[in-house]
Design a protein that fits this description.
This protein is an alpha+beta fold. The protein has helices at about 30-40, 50-65, 110-120, 135-140, 140-155, 160-165, 170-180; strands spanning about 1-10, 15-25, 70, 75-85, 100-110, 125, 155-160, 190-195, 195-200. The strands form three sheets. It has a three-stranded mixed sheet with strand order 2-1-6, with no helix packed on it. Strands 3-4-5 form a three-stranded antiparallel sheet. The longest helix has 18 residues, at about 50-65.
Amino acid sequence: MLFEVHPSPMKDDEGKPYVYVRPASRQRVSMKDIDAYCAEYYALRPGELTRAFEAFIQASAHWLSEGYRMETPIGTFAPKIGLRPGLRTSDPKAVRSRDVVFEGIEFKSAKDYEGKVRSWITNGYRRVDKPDTSQLLADKEQLLTVLRESLAAFGGYVTARIFALRSGLTYYSARKLLNTWTEGDAPLLLKTRRGHDYIYTEV
């Protein structure tokens, strides 16, 4: 995961700001991307996940509008309400229904979901000032060298995780590049499913 370092408003004894880190991802993954990914790797029909999300949004909006907390595999959703802007009172009896406004949705992620995210962080954390993905992808000769070295080191096969770790690419970019090398009239690699993952071997 790429990260950035930024100064915070808090300062140390010498007046220097403490720093904090945040993810530095500059790309967005759309619902279309997620749907296509799940169709390819999790045996869903194209569009199935999008339709499921649309149904979830309709159903969850109904229950949240009624004040329910919703527990899901990814976490808990709850409606957030408050008093209308400008209203401040210490008298509970002064609050009328017209004084209450919807402020949004609170989300608390589930521990299992957080653990799943953590399990995918296989190549650690890298500062954004290191070569980024586009720079790494531009050097095709170096990536082919890394591929050959990886195949030799792991007995003639490589996985996307291994290639990402050795090349410095993100897992997503490493998998995409490996898949590209399996295509065309003269592919470099053969892609074979193994359990929940894929291995890539020389043709």
